[in-house]
Design brief:
With 324 residues, the protein is α/β, with parallel strands linked by helices. It contains 12 helices and 9 strands. The protein has a domain of 200 residues: Alpha-Beta Complex (Spore Coat Polysaccharide Biosynthesis Protein SpsA, Chain A), CATH 3.90.550.10. Strands 1, 2, 3, 4, 5, 6, 7, 8 and 9 form a 9-stranded mixed β-sheet that branches.
Amino acid sequence: MTRRANSAPLVTVVLPSRDRPVEVRRAARTVIAQTFTDWELIIVDDGSDPAADVIGLEAMDPRILVLRNETSQGVSEARNRGILEARGRWLAFLDDDDVWHPRKLAAQLAGAEELGATFVYTSSAVVEVGLASARVERALVDGEFHRRMANGNLVRAPSCVLVDTGAVRSVGGFDPQLSVTADWDLWLRLRDQVTAAAVDEPLTGVIEHPGSMQLVLAEKIGDELLYLRGRHGPVCRERGWVFGSHDLERWRAQKRWAAKPTPARAMMYAWWVVRCYGIRGTVRKLNDHREWRAATAPDWLREQLETPALQPAVTAAPTTADVA
């Protein structure tokens, strides 16, 4: 497919997808709905079977370009193909099962300008499919951000991130050998290339469901963590940082249990929870979990999930950038 817009946009959104025709349209609609309009959206169909409706996706908006891998190359290669084609000064990543608040890009660009940042991530509203509740995971950047990032991934999902395109290209993009932890690996490799900032407002909707990559590939997490320890462990030690933490092992145990809920995996998950938080902390976490189950998801997120996603959207032609 050929690109339809002549001038380079400020932001390129990279959206990899495979075998999720409904979800990828829903995700694309949340890009089209952005109040900031100077963007292009590159959708990389990573070998969907049958092939995604390429014409239908590009018909949603003239700023959309669809690329197709005839056979699946994996999520990292799919993202890298989008990065290679990107013309924007900024890159934003969006997973096909996630959604954005309409002000997401505008808020990140405003934060980048105000703070001189080249890596900006948002807080997220995390919702499980079938539930009306959502928990908020806060974005936080301080003087210890890169050290704390070595302990574990502070960014809930790639969909939360806006980052300088040149910085990502300078470190080679996503590592094709990784899938579940590929985003954390990239953020770690960017540590000397970017200045980080956070948007505290939860403007990214992260959707958890049985087909999530973290669950489908849960058994690969251990191997990927060993790979990352070999890559980043020596660098962290040189800087006096600790690579990995008990909470990282708790996260791994939780994903393995959620993917295959056996008694042995439940016990291992419980052991790591207590190891991380102690008895009192575990009780607090249980209370937090109950409160989350009772909390109502934000209106904008419920509307995104309830809006039909199959029909192409009719939109006005793109206008000049407006980050107000």
